[in-house]
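Comment thread on ticket #2218

A.B. wrote:
> Attaching the input chain for the structure job we discussed in standup.
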Amino acid sequence: MSVSARGPVLFAIMAAALIGVGYAQSWSVALGIINLCLISSVMALGVNIQWGYAGLFNVGTVGFVAVGGVAAVLVSASPVGEAWSAGGIGLLLAFLAIVATVAAVLAIRARIPRGRARNLSIAAAVIIGYFLTRQAFDPAVDRIESIDPALSGYLGGLGLPIILSWAVGGVMAAGVAWLIGKVSLGLRSDYLAIATLGIGEIIVFIAKNEDWLTRGVKNVTGLPRPVPYEIDLQQADWFVARAAALGLDPSEASTIVVKLCYAALFLVVLLCLLWLSERALNSPWGRMMRAIRDNEAAAEAMGKNVTARRLQTFILGSAVCGVAGAMLTTLDGQFTPGTYNPLRFTFLIWVMVIVGGSGNNWGSVLGGFLIWFVWVEAEPAGRWMMEILSSGMDEASPIRAHLINSAAFMRMVLMGVILLLALRFSPKGLLPEKMR
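C.D. wrote:
> Ran it. Output below, let me know if you need it in another format.
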């Protein structure tokens, strides 16, 4: 099969598999898989921008996804007035202390020549700024977290429509990526991987433990939706009549409609990002990034600022992951820091990019759909297979019970098998990068 025909055929097979889930299980399950496939494809696009364009080995994806989730809370959650009254002034003073510290460091760097005097002055400014910041920050946090901690205990957000948080999540993730990139992008690829892995875990740790900002592991629930609520649809006479005309239960129909609305929103975002990514990849900037990826020394000899261009790519990819993180929190309707683990938000995303085809945006989208589909359907398929294999055993057999209960772990085995097969038989992915 030619490479040009392979893409449409593989996407058609993927669509047929999703339709099969709708018929075999339920359309609600199929739409739930589609929504998470769309979000996973956005994450895969972000990683592909970093790895496929510039060869940046970022294994801290989970941190940027978590930043997007925090953005959803800060934008859409209702503000907690008592918490602002109790600790808002203290947090403002702490922020001003940080700004003053940064300004002092910049002034010292500008006015004092390099040497021991400048180093000592910067160290003194940082130490003084640290203690001044903690002097205002710690009491304010204690007061905020003591305000009805079972229900609030945090500042809340701005109470704006949650769909705005998708853009804010991208901007926040880009800002974090700028700070990280300025420090770590000068490192060699293996050290960059270690640095981003550690920084990603630090971001998740902050989300889990800074209750004043995100309620920590107590979670933020009840975030507003950009789509209708099922209960509102079920109570609307026109909707009940339309569902009855189609022979559907109003409860099931409302669930399907809500998931279709989410799918439409996510599809628009994915298509916009895909279009922009394709334009960037095929532009002079994209050709320059691939030249840097393939031969850094040659690109630098041609006068290209390799570090600056890598920083651009790192920021863009991280921003896309931040958008996906805000979309995921919107779909869940809650922010749960405990669910951000590297297996789901780093390893699986990398498998999507590798299997789909690094350097090919359409391949990343295909990988996002394929890997998440397999990840979700591996458990019911594994349980079905185990039941067939153990059908000849006694119902009370402990071996049979063990085989059936172990079906959930089939997804781990399948991910490893898929990755090994892809690396062995299609090392460039299902949709390889188009070399021009």
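A.B. wrote:
> Thanks. Noting for the ticket: The two ends are 20 Å apart (CA to CA).
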